[in-house]
Design goal:
2 strands, globular, mainly alpha
């Protein structure tokens, strides 16, 4: 199993995404990753001539799209040029520094820029971490995961196949992780008087450290092939 498909990685990213979505909506009235919600809100705000708010969400959509394209290019590039490089690990560490940078007053004065950048890197993350133990999942939002959980439950009740049960538990864990991330942000904003991006950066840092240790333990060097 590739190290980036370990359940702890996928569930941690889903947990963090729950934190991010809740934080950006509460603080900036925009979703960083749930682009369907951004599209609906943008159209409504355009109708009501709320140009600034609509523009922020439209740019979020655009940069999310560009992030997907860049992630696909990065993946193909390293598969051809240097398949042994653990580029996903560098992505995790990069997000640590990015979310810490969001705490700076200079960036806090530009919420649209923060939302756009989060959308961009989240899209890269989504494309780069798209499986847990070989099973597809979405670590940015829950709609697809909810469908997968429901269909797997139906298949299991119909066929009693172990594979369907495994898929049901897989999607259930992902959804729970996302919900817990949302609740963590609500708790943080209510009781901890520190910028939420510090908590998000800390979560990324712990995940990056865990994955670094996993790679070193299994392969002896972070440059060996996953």
């Amino acid at each position: 199993m590739p190290s980036h498909e370990h359940p702890s990685v996928g569930l941690s990213l889903t947990f963090i995404s729950g934190m991010i979505n809740t934080a950006t909506y509460i603080n900036y009235q925009a979703f960083a990753t749930a682009q369907t919600g951004n599209l609906i809100l943008a159209l409504s705000q355009l109708y009501h001539q709320q140009w600034d708010s609509a523009g922020k969400k439209i740019l979020s959509l655009l940069f999310f799209f560009l992030g997907i394209l860049l992630a696909m290019w990065i993946r193909d590039y390293f598969l051809k040029k240097n398949p042994s490089l653990h580029w996903r690990l560098y992505l995790l560490y990069g997000q640590v520094f990015l979310f810490l940078a969001f705490c700076l007053p200079a960036l806090q004065r530009h919420p649209a820029l923060i939302v756009i950048l989060i959308s961009f890197v989240s899209a890269i993350q989504w494309e780069s971490f798209d499986k847990i133990n070989g099973l597809p999942y979405t670590n940015l939002f829950t709609t697809g995961n909810l469908k997968g959980m429901a269909s797997s439950l139906y298949d299991f009740r119909k066929t009693k196949e172990t594979a369907a049960k495994i898929r049901f538990l897989h999607f259930s864990r992902v959804i729970i992780a996302f919900i817990l991330g949302c609740l963590m942000t609500l708790f943080w904003l209510s009781f901890v008087h520190v910028n939420i991006f510090v908590a998000i950066a800390g979560a990324f840092f712990l995940l990056a450290l865990f994955r670094s240790y996993w790679i070193l333990r299994k392969n002896g060097s972070p440059e060996k092939k996953q």
